[in-house]
Automatic annotation (TrEMBL):
SMART domains: PKS_ER. Coiled coil: none annotated. Signal peptide: none annotated. It comes from Bradyrhizobium stylosanthis. Residues 11-322 form the Enoyl reductase (ER) domain. InterPro entries: ADH-like_C (IPR013149), ADH-like_N (IPR013154), ER (IPR020843), GroES-like_sf (IPR011032), NAD(P)-bd_dom_sf (IPR036291), Zn-ADH-like_protein (IPR051397). This is NADPH2:quinone reductase. It holds the Pfam family ADH_zinc_N. One of its GO terms (molecular function) is oxidoreductase activity.
């Protein structure tokens, strides 16, 4: 029997249930993967609550990314073999012991990662890559302001921003989160409750402001970011964990600034070539040891609600993984 976390009614994490199902027979072109770890992302929580742009039909299993071993290859499935260690990319369905997918959803695991690291890599770092390289076009020497730098995508942005040669200002809500951001390359650290970040950015940049803002928080954070930007700044809208912010068009006009929405997955669906370039770079950087997810919590599958709460309560530093034993 296969265990899976099932959402039968939209709501809080505690409304989900762990259920058992028999394995199904593979259809032509399908592959069976024994899931060893699944990564949690904030959209998983939003999807279960019915608050995400993607709204799967009920019932469904949350989870956008996982890693495991190929255990069976169906007829007509090409490019994969039993025993392959793989990352599994999904729109939902990863919180389970076993997944039936197509070969196109599989990516070889970096040899430098364990299963939990592999299961928490591509979504967060892929979003940061798309934001900073495809959308923000960060240049060496620019100032990059990263909000929510203790979160999964925030830490990824710190890492990749530093790789791109930017001066990285990391903001977060605790010293512990900022310490991890510093260890991943942040040049300057700002704790939200100790100094208004807009003042800190102006102080750090001698009044010039940030060239690029990476914002997964939204709300007042986004609105205040417009008050500490340089001429020609790019404000990257990653998410809205802190609410939906309003763009002051006068501030954007005065600074010649751009607001850019970031949807890494949708961008690849619209233009698959973008995804190929991104994936090649991310896998190469992982093999070279230049990028690695920071996983603050590894919990068993049955603790899915607790794991999701860690994201809601902002207690995770980097990533949270469900580990199947």
């Amino acid at each position: 029997m296969v265990r899976a976390v099932v959402c039968r009614a939209l709501g809080a994490p505690e409304t989900l249930r762990l259920e058992e199902f028999p394995s199904r027979v593979l259809k032509p072109g399908e592959v069976r993967v024994a899931i060893r770890a699944a990564g949690l992302n904030f959209p998983d929580v939003l999807m279960a609550a019915g608050e995400y742009q993607l709204k799967p039909e009920l019932p469904f299993t949350p989870g956008m990314e996982a890693a495991g071993d190929v255990t069976e290859v169906g007829p007509e499935a090409r490019g994969v073999a039993v025993g392959d260690k793989v990352i599994v990319k999904m729109r939902h369905g990863a919180f389970t012991d076993e997944a039936v997918v197509s070969p196109s959803q599989l990516t070889p695991m970096p040899s430098t990662f364990d299963y939990a690291e592999a299961a928490t890599y591509l979504a967060g770092h892929g979003t940061a890559y798309h934001a900073l390289i495809d959308r923000g076009r960060v240049e060496p020497g620019e100032v990059l302001l990263v909000h929510g730098a203790g979160g999964g995508v925030g830490l990824a942005a710190v890492e990749i921003g530093k790789m791109l040669g930017a001066t990285v200002i990391a903001t977060a809500s605790s010293d512990e989160k900022l310490a991890i951001a510093k260890s991943r390359g942040a040049d300057h650290l700002v704790r939200y409750d100790r100094e208004p970040f807009r003042d800190a950015v102006k102080r750090i940049t001698d009044g010039r402001g940030a060239d690029v803002v990476f914002d997964p928080v939204g709300g007042e954070v986004f609105e205040n970011s417009m008050r500490c930007i340089a001429w020609g700044a790019r404000l990257l809208v990653i998410g809205f964990t802190g609410g939906i912010g309003s763009a002051k068009t006068n501030l954007l006009l005065i600074k010649g600034a751009s607001v850019l929405g970031v949807r890494a997955g949708e961008a690849v669906r619209k233009n698959p070539a973008l995804g190929e370039v991104r994936l090649k770079a991310l896998l190469q950087w992982a093999e070279e040891g230049r990028l690695r997810p920071n996983i603050s919590h590894r919990l068993p599958l049955e603790d899915y609600a607790k794991a999701m709460r860690l994201l809601l309560d902002r207690k995770a530093i980097g990533r949270v993984a469900l580990v199947m034993e």
